Amino acid sequence: MNRMDTRVTEIAFDLLKEIGNEGLNSRTYIAQDIQLDANIVIKEVNKLSISPDTTYFAEARLLYASRHPNVMEIKYASQDDDNLYLAMPYYKNGSLNALINNKFLSVPEIIHYGLDFLSALNYIHSKGLIHFDVKPSNIIINDAGKALLTDFGLAQLTDKYGFAEVPLAYPTHLTPEWFQASVFTSQYDVFQAGLTLYRMCNGNSDFDDKLQNGGVTRDEVVRGIFPDRYKFLPHIPNSLRK
Fold it and tell me: Residues of 120-135 as b/e, b for ≥16 C-beta within 10 angstroms?
């Protein structure tokens, strides 16, 4: 479509409180949109952390192109001299990670939230997109109690053969492929989804301890030593353990 005119406008918001602590290259805040007088979430990404061959607003465009009931909506994207800002709805329930830290999830909750974020993964995979950072802190519970997949900062579109590269990985959610290949398929997300479901069943303590010690090792991941496949809380039924 031809441009009739380009307008450069001003967007202003006040950062109120930093939230989340698992970002690889960003910071996330609760903010107040001054124009709308409403609370939103702002993801702040330093431009220096973005690969030179990547479009600044690549993550925002991927989020917008992946609109789905279980994918976080993006309201707008903006920038200043140093940072990019992605604006998203604010949901008071916070992340799945915060919920896991607050209590042990019931089996119906595990199934409900699990089906929600797996539905989002299935959708983006059908669009040729690999998330590459599936973990509880990147799943938000909205006001209707639905789980939404968010944070597409590492997401990549696959080539015609279904492969994509990724330069970074979260140190407790490494996959066997990370140590054995240089390009990856959607199976990368499937393994991380399994780790997420495991944390939903058993809590975060083992993963938090592992993070404090620098993350998982190649041997632990490739040989399937971490996490312990036989360690489950008493209320988790055999059908879910499998």
Answer: bbebbbeeebbbbbbb
